[in-house]
Amino acid sequence: MNKIILASQSPRRKQLLEWAEVPFEVIVKETDERFPPGISPDEVAVYIARNKALAVQAQAGNDAVILAADTIVVLGDNIIGKPVHREDAVSILMALSGEKHKVITGVVILKGDEEIAFADTTDVEFHDLSVKEIEFYVDKYKPYDKAGAYAIQEWIGVVGIKSISGDFYNVMGLPVSRVVRELKVLVD
Known about the structure:
The mean pLDDT is about 95. Helix content is about 40%, strand content about 25%. The radius of gyration is 17 Å and the shape is elongated. By secondary structure, it is α/β, with parallel strands linked by helices. It has helices spanning about 10-20, 40-60, 85-95, 130-140, 155-160, 170, 175-185, and strands spanning about 5, 25, 65-75, 80, 100-110, 115-125, 160-165. The longest helix has 20 residues, at about 40-60. It contains seven helices and seven strands. The protein has one domain (about 5-185): Maf protein (Alpha-Beta Complex). Helix 3 packs across helix 4.
């Protein structure tokens, strides 16, 4: 497979591509993560991923194959982003405790004018978590760069998740098996 450009600073996305043995380099441009009102959560994730991909494409050129992704957490009708500070992280995890939520990753792959865009959804349910457990996690793992204030591969995922339906790696930030299949369509 040809080398691609990963338009993400996420160490988890880098790790997943390395595990899949996809050759890549990282180029990141700061982008606005706001989105227009009235679009669905799937559309939100793809919209933000597309903006990341287009920003990198403007720098890297049309010959480059660019992979961008954005992960959001949805509880009920509310999109939950990254926590702003400790109290926000604790509050988010208290809301997720004992509840089912959706983790949606929007993916955009660009090569010139060609685009593959999709959203992948995984349903996750937490056990009831105590304030003490949540505070321990937030203080030790500092999940401020993570949508929903948690990482499934960390302590809270290991001890706190009751069930998962869908792609585990999607919750880590990239539905990597689908990404690899889609890259083959565009690159090979």
